[in-house]
Amino acid sequence: MNSGRALPRRSDRRLRAITPVVVVAAVLTLSACSGGGKSGGGGDTNFVTNTGGISTVAVAERRPVNKIAGETLDGAKLDVADLKGKIVVLNVWGSWCPPCRQEAKHFAKVAKETESQGVAFVGINTRDPNKGPALAFEKDYGVPYPSLYDPMGKLIVNGFPKGSLNPQSIPSTIVLDRNGKIAARSLMALNEEKLRTMIDPLIAEK
């Protein structure tokens, strides 16, 4: 007996389930594992890009991040919102990414040196299908700070407001001011000098 309401075809249900995953994958492969990158943001971001490829935002134009929270590689819970009052360096990385390995020692060094100045580093590990290689990466490079485990890139896609300075490549680095607002971004691997050019001006802000 026909009830008058057609059942959805299996292929339609499968397509709806797959589509969000495809979207996330497309975003992450846009400039995956790039040694450099073009700074841009889309929309009215009101940012200025210097010759070093680092984009910055004037204090009055900064926007807060969305919720960035979840489980870290070591199984703890972490919410970036709890770090408000500190300068937060968000680094998107993967253990499979050569430029991420290139910059890791610089991030580890600067993280240790700036902790007493109110700077907190948080990694966002992505596209590692399991935690093993990522944990080995942290051990090999002496990474002293936690990383959120984001294998499908959901935090990357949803954590940054549209039109803001957001991650568009791997590695990407976003620096938040003490109010949890996006102040600077880089879309390339960073050495110690370039990383400090993103952090030091925020340390000096009152």
How does this model look, in words?
The strands form two sheets. The chain has a seven-stranded mixed sheet. Strands 3-4 form a two-stranded antiparallel sheet. It is α+β, with helices and mostly antiparallel strands. Helices cover 32% and strands 20% of the residues. The protein is globular and about 40 Å long. The relative contact order is 0.23.
Please provide a brief summary of the model.
The chain is α+β, with helices and mostly antiparallel strands.
List keywords for this structure.
206 residues; alpha+beta; two-stranded antiparallel ribbon; 5 helices; 9 strands; 32% helix; 20% strand; globular
Secondary-structure blueprint:
Layout: H1 10-28, E1 47-49, E2 54-57, E3 69-71, E4 77-79, E5 87-93, H2 98-114, E6 119-126, H3 131-141, E7 147-150, H4 154-158, E8 172-176, E9 182-186, H5 192-204
Parallel strand pairs: 5-6, 6-7
Antiparallel strand pairs: 1-2, 2-9, 3-4, 5-8, 8-9
